[in-house]
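thought: fold this chain, then report.
action: predict
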Amino acid sequence: MSQTKTITFDAVLEDDNITIPTSYRNELVALFKDKKVRVTVQSAEEPAKKPLSNMDDWQKTHDSFIQYLIDNPIEIENPIRLTRDQMHER
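observation:
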């Protein structure tokens, strides 16, 4: 069984074409050149659930894990917001 690799990016459909952003082209060619791929198109207007990423992938695109988290915040449904005083009570 082969391992699945998912790459997600935003694009605009123009003249029946979707242009792959430059930052993804080399990776796509390296992974999928001359291979059959599956393309899924989803409206960006609907909130998309981000697929869970492999935490080791941050090293490919970022110099630090903190910068990776800033650029890719972890989304939590219904987070509990604490005031400064509430945080220090615990």
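thought: worth noting. The mean pLDDT is 82.
final: tokens above.
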